[in-house]
Amino acid sequence: MALILKDGRPVVRLRAFRAIDDPATCERFIEGHAHVLTAIGVKKVTSSSHDWMYNPAAFVLIVESLDGENVYGGARIHVAGGSQPLPIEEATGQMDPKIFDLVWRYAQEGTGEGCGLWNSREIAGYGIGSIFLTRAAIAIAPQIGIKSLFALCAPYTINLTKCVGYRLETNVGNNGTFYYPKLDLLATTMILDDVGSLSLASDEDKNAILALRTQGDIVRIEELRSKKIEIQYKLQLDNMQNWDLQSIINGMSKGRQSNEPFNENNLNIL
User: Fold this and answer.
1) Is the residue at 207 inside a domain?
2) Confidence band, pLDDT 50/70/90 cuts, at residue 251
3) CA angle, 139 as apex, 136 and 144 as ends, to 5°?
4) How far apart are CA 218 and CA 231, in angstroms?
5) Number of compact structural domains in the chain
6) Measured by CB atoms within 10 angstroms of the end CB, which terminus of the chain is less buried, N or C?
7) Domain with 243 in it: what CATH number?
8) Is residue 269 included in any domain, yes or no?
């Protein structure tokens, strides 16, 4: 998956779409993500972890080559009330059922979760698997209509999520944290309360997100730690005339729990 270079910089496209509108790209997302997980030693990825492909309330952001043939990273937004519980509910609900009521309360005005964030080795170090996909996900949230976002964060991503406006939610777990003994992993519950105003975000991140939000489809030279990358953003969501957030909210049951047992291979942590 060789990168295209322009003036010594990689050139990629960062595109957003509703999962059910583009099954072929969803398949490439899954294949790329599975390749990354295999490279770090996660060999079992269950088919149930791919059910988001058919969830009418799942949205995808993908980083790909300009011809769409190669995939270098991605992330997703799952909206509460779709055909699945939010990943954070599936991951933590058996440890603390309060997460179901918390999500339900936020869902009444439209909420979702940023999850499934990853990048390939080819693009490592350019900020794709951290800041630029995260900003893009927040930028498209108003198009979806949601007012807030959840995230389940690994320790090394907490500061990143705080910079883009998330805060620690202490009313679930152990002051917001959950420990997975089998994974030797500490996960922290974060919430972005105001995707519109981004009152807690740093000035740099807020300005970048708002620029993406207002300009939608734009080419930007992004820089992280002196490494530059050209990103052709395509963040205008197509076919949104077929999207009805209120019907998704109306179909959500209070305190809905997943019938599936917890599976560590399905865990989606930023």
Assistant:
1) yes
2) confident
3) 115
4) 8
5) 1
6) N
7) 3.40.630.30
8) no
Closest CA to 201 of 248, 144, 138, 107: 138
What are the CA-CA distances from residue 236 to residues 26, 59, 99, 137, 217 (Å)? 18, 12, 31, 12, 7
Q: What amino acid is encoded at 65 in this protein?
A: S
Helix axes of 203-215 and 133-144: crossing angle, nearest 10 degrees: 50
Q: Which amino acid is at 6?
A: K
Domain that holds residue 221: 7-251
User: Whole-model pTM above 0.85?
Assistant: yes
**Is residue 188 a part of any domain in this protein?**
yes
Confirm if 84 and 55 have CB atoms less than 8 A apart: yes
**Closest to 161 (Cα-Cα) out of 186, 195, 184:** 195
Q: What is the DSSP string of 114-173?
A: EEEEEE-GGGTTSSIIIIIHHHHHHHHHHHHT-SEEEEEE-GGGHHHHHHTT-EE--SST
- How many whole angstroms separate alpha carbon 7 and alpha carbon 233? 19
Antiparallel, parallel or unpaired: β 167-168 and 217-224:
unpaired
Q: DSSP of 197-234, one letter per residue?
A: T-TTS-HHHHHHHHHHHHH-EEEEEEEETTEEEEEEEE
